[in-house]
Amino acid sequence: WTFGDGSSTQMTRVAVANYSYLSPGDYLVEVNATNLISFFIAHLTITVKVLECEEPEVELALPPQVVMKRSQRNYLEAQIDLRGCIKYQTEHLWEIYRAPSCMNLDDSSRIHLPNVDVNRPQLVIPKLALAVGNYCFIFIVSFGDTPLSKSIFANVTVIPSKLVPIIDGGSYRVWSNTQDLILDGEKSYDPNLDDGEQTPLLYDWSCTFSSKSSAAGCSLNFSAKEGIVTISKAALEAGVEYTFDLTVRKEGMSPEATNQTVRTAPGCPP
């Protein structure tokens, strides 16, 4: 390699060379590629100019390790100080890599998110867009028509959200003791999956309290493992409040629980 400024020739074993010019001007770069049998010479004119602005400053107001929940929309925003520069058009770019850290990244680990604007200082990650795992987010600001760029990175961990247990009817219901009581927990779900991708949950029902019981606990002998369970009206007493617990489980996730209190009343349910 010769760089047209009178410096000594540079030899490399790869087709890439790094070089810095000390003065502005036009320089003719020449490279001679040879395998000791034949050779080929190529030329390129390089124009070096003095940057008419100071380098921009950029920062992310974030902790060293960012944690995002997969089930939520997440935001990252870069703070940019152009230091008064209006000479160049400013360009922004976010890059996302699936990697344990921001060291030794390669293109094969880069993530492309459809319909996500990566050319603004604020980055919006839709819910469920990223799988659970570790990522490196890089924000790059550059001046158009110049090679100058400034980048900053963030280590991001995407974690799963907890299972969501739901008993149809809310936390308190009034029910007629003339009808069988139906407890429905099938609206429980895994928030880390789309509605159409939900996988089966395991259910554990129990009665933990009844207002008629003299001791702490429930006078109703009840437990079940189905999503929807029915308690016979014959087992229910009018004017008694029962508290039912539902615990939902899934392999690889912590169990989550909720409860519902049901007051039985004579006559038709409201």
From TrEMBL:
Keywords: Membrane, Repeat, Transmembrane, Transmembrane helix. InterPro entries: Ig-like_fold, PKD/REJ-like, PKD_dom, PKD_dom_sf, REJ_dom. Coiled coil: none annotated. It is found in: Membrane. Its main location: membrane. It comes from Merops nubicus. Residues 53-270 form the REJ domain. Belongs to the polycystin family. One of its GO terms (cellular component) is plasma membrane. Residues 1-50 form the PKD domain. GO terms for molecular function: monoatomic cation channel activity. GO terms for biological process: calcium ion transport. This is Polycystin-1.
